[in-house]
Design goal:
binds 1-O-phosphono-beta-D-fructofuranose, binds adenosine-5'-triphosphate, 14 strands, globular, 24% strand, Carboh/pur_kinase_PfkB_CS
Length: 305
């Protein structure tokens, strides 16, 4: 199951150049249902992995997302909440991405309890749960921690979030975390510059009880620290069309492959193939199974125990 507590309509605008304070011509524009968990669900659907997307939707934007998920045949079971689901504007000007992300409608303690009840109704022993994305402003940063600690069944928990929510989540010892470099820097309140510093930080998270730490690093690929030691995945040099959803594709790829095979290194390769394949798609569109399969051989691995 994927959980997106703060989904978004992603409005991606392509322009030749972006001059702040001027009128800029739009080349093309696209509108997608977004939010990290929803993107993960889209990838899982493309990979033929059964999943249900849940979380909260509100207002007209929420209805639009629900319709879009229905049209794309993505199984979903969202809770309705008050306010309006956010719209996030992504501007791609001469290959440089600028994002304007909304904060989303506030969630109350009652909302959190409704979600916990739904998760406990739907999740079975051995299932995977992916909690992905930021929490709306003014929502308890301990929400993911609270959800994980309230799970009744034996579920593999993966989390991709940032800021205070990430810091609090670690206390609940999720099985899998995928911070990017910026999120890791924020978490450790420092600029981790060398690979050694990044790897040391990942080991600190392992010491706190996170089984698998996968740090995504954009064009530099990713580093995984787990029971298999330290493993680097290096992607091919490509020209991305849009990197939106690359991290979500990485999460979807890792969790689906790991739950099928329990093979950490194979899952890392597959995760990176998903991430790279998504960077070659416009807007918030995500990789297809065939695109991922074609990418697998191009991911180099460098592992040491
Ligand atoms: N420019 C790129 N070239 C090659 N591979 C890339 C590039 N950008 C992303 N990737 C692949 O996608 C993975 C995830 O990307 P990234 O680290 O940018 O995730 P993220 O910051 O979580 O993204 P988002 O939040 O937009 O989903 C990388 O580990 C890498 O495998
Ligand atoms: O504010 P968050 O939840 O961190 O990020 C939201 C978001 O940028 O993430 C997805 C790409 O990963 C987009 O679909 C969405 O707009």
């Amino acid at each position: 199951m994927t959980v997106t507590v703060n989904p978004a309509i992603d409005l991606t605008v392509y322009t030749d150049s972006l001059q702040i304070g001027e009128i800029n011509a739009v080349e093309s524009m696209r509108k997608d249902s977004g939010g990290k968990g929803i993107n993960v669900s889209k990838v899982l659907k493309n990979l033929d992995v059964l999943t249900v997307a849940t979380g909260f939707l509100a207002g007209e934007a929420g209805c639009w997302i629900r319709d879009e998920l229905k049209n794309k045949s993505i199984s979903h079971d969202f809770l309705e909440t008050s306010g309006e689901t956010r719209t996030n504007v992504k501007i791609i000007a001469s290959d440089v991405e600028t994002q304007l992300n909304g904060s989303g409608p506030e969630l109350t303690e009652t909302d959190i309890n409704r979600l916990i009840e739904k998760l406990n109704d739907l999740l079975q022993d051995g299932d995977g749960l992916i909690l992905a994305g930021s929490l709306p402003k003014q929502t308890d940063p301990g929400m993911y921690r609270q959800i994980i600690q309230s799970l009744k069944n034996q579920v593999f928990v993966a989390v991709d979030t940032s800021g205070a929510a990430l810091a609090e989540t670690i206390e609940a010892r999720p099985h899998f975390l995928k911070p990017n470099e910026e999120e890791l820097n924020q978490l450790f309140d420092t600029a981790l510059e060398t690979e050694t510093e990044i790897i040391d930080a990942a080991y600190k998270l392992r010491e706190k009880g996170v089984e698998i730490v996968l740090i995504s690093r954009g064009e530099k690929g990713s580093i995984m620290v787990s029971a298999a030691g330290t493993c680097k995945a290096i992607p091919p040099v490509i020209t991305p069309v849009s990197t939106i959803g690359a991290g979500d594709s990485t999460v979807a790829g890792f969790v689906s492959k790991y739950l099928q095979t329990k093979d950490l290194i194979r899952s890392l390769r597959f995760a990176n193939a998903c991430g790279v394949a998504t960077t070659l798609k416009p807007g918030s569109q995500v990789c297809s199974r065939i695109e991922v399969e074609n990418m697998l051989d191009q991911i180099q691995l460098d592992c040491e125990r």
